[in-house]
Amino acid sequence: MRVDELSIQNFRNLADPVFRADPRINIIFGNNAQGKTNLMEALWLFTGNRSFRGAREAEMIAFGKQSARLQVNFECNGRDQTAQLMLGERKKNHLNQVPVKTVSEFAGRYYAVVFSPSDLSFVKDGPEKRRRFLDIAIAQIKPVYQKYLNQYNRVLIQRNALLKDLYNHPSLEATVDLWDEQLAKLGTILTGFRMDYLKKLNGFAGRIYEGIAGGAEQAEFLYRSTVFEEELNAGGYTDEAVGRYAGMLATQREEDKKLGSTSVGVHRDDIEVKINGFPARQYGSQGQQRSCVLALKLGESELLRHVTGESPVMLLDDVMSELDPSRQDYILNHLENQQVFLTCCDVSNTLRLKSGSIYRVEDGRISAEDSPPRYCD
Question: Of 83, 6, 78, whose CA–CA distance to 39 is shortest?
Fold first, then answer.
């Protein structure tokens, strides 16, 4: 997987119409609020996912404009391809000149892994962030996963709305069973995908963490289901499993009626991170927790390559300054044979790289540098 060229029109503050990428390492530096992360965001959107910054579509369109357009020329699966993404009023998304209904159809065609400063709090943050990590990672390998997830979320919204109405309209309770049946089927499918993915990721990420720790520590990444105690896999969809899921929903119904929401299911599940058998959230140091996140991101990249045969584009958004020198070196030493985009303010953190190109971003304009200064202004 390789990005060759990104065309930009009315996207945030980016002023240059075309950015031509180096096939190896792309170091993008500049002061804060100049547009470095905007460029990374533009490259990320072609995975078919929402902004990794949590931005709404309207926020990504340049001030005073009605729409924005992004186009990327890239190589994947042994051939040159192109994708066009429209934001705003005139949504006309294309993949290889063929219209697509939604950008989620880009999933499985364009691969990227993003690592940003907000990810460094992965272990300490709430479970929503960890679930989101799984959803994005799995959808790139199995695009059908996103379809099931969207269906699940729609059913969940309907069930929660019904739960809120039951006290005023108790005659509607019989219809809850219909929503529970759908939720149980979809939830069982999603749980199987998640458990199977995390089991495989655990192998890659565990080895990477051990390497970061010099063999002195071991890390585990475990899926914690609110429904299933035993492990499912992508083929674990059975009538018995669906029945167990539906039974758990039925058991919790009275409590759910009081809450007005669904208290069990994949939307409540979590990833537990352990170091030497102890929960990293309670007992891990900041350095250990950051090593766990680094291992997960590098493991995600390796697993994606293992499954698809394609090395994903690695987007490292301003994380180098947040890591100590040993972890910086570990990143730089594990990014061979794949294209990397790395943003920073202090270029000196990247001078150990022996190949690639360096770009300065200033007020949304991207310019190639012949050689980097020791420090940014």
Answer: 6
Q: Is the pLDDT of residue 374 over 80?
A: no
* CB of 14 closer than 8 Å to CB of 38: yes
User: Which residue has 């199995």 as its token pair?
Assistant: 142
What would the pLDDT profile of 250-290 be if each residue is shown by its tens digit?
999 999 999 999 999 999 999 999 999 999 999 999 999 99
Task: Report the DSSP pairing between strands 357-362 and 25-29.
Answer: parallel
Calpha distance 133→303 (Å, rounded): 14
Q: Which of 64, 20, 69, 66 is CA-nearest to residue 42?
A: 69
Position 34, amino acid: Q
Average pLDDT (284-299) is: 94
Contact 206, 215 (CB under 8 A): no
| CA distances for 145 relative to 15, 205, 255, 374, angstroms | 36, 22, 29, 45
**Number of C-beta neighbours around residue 217 at 10 A:** 15
